[in-house]
Amino acid sequence: MRLLIALLVLLLTGGCTGVFMYPDNVRVIDPSAYGLKFSENLLQDGQGPDLIYWDIQAKGKYQGTILFLHGNAGNVSTHLRAVSWLPEEGYRVIMLDYRGYGGSQGDSEIRGVHHDAERMFRFVAAMEPDRSRRILFGQSLGASIALYTQGNQQDEEFFSAIIADSPFASYREITREKVGSFWLLYPFQYPISLLILDTYSPINMVKKITVPTLFIHGQDDQIVLPHHSLDLCQAMKGYCTRWEISGMDHIHALNGIGLRKRTIQWIQEVTTAARGKGKH
Question: Is the pTM of this model over 0.85?
Answer without folding.
Answer: yes
